[in-house]
Amino acid sequence: xxxxxxxxxFVVLMMAITEKSVVGGVLTFVLYGLAPCALLLxxxxxxxxALRQHRERKxxxxxxxxxxxxxxxxxxxxxxxxxxxQ
Length: 86
What we know:
The relative contact order is 0.07. Helix content is 86%, strand content 0%. It has helices spanning 2-17, 22-70, 77-85. It starts with a helix and ends with a helix.
């Protein structure tokens, strides 16, 4: 993805260089280049963070579910079985 951003900024830089005024070139670079790239990077970072948090919550829920499946009543089954053997 970084190569796409670099290529886009290069194209926008070439567009900015061909502008007739310096102000036009700077505005072209900022509005067509930096602003969209910053927005794209922010959206991707936000999505990755949300996906990572979702995976962590899912893993934690599976861990709790696995512990409850092993011991659903919260008691030690080993002690119960020792009572049966006596």
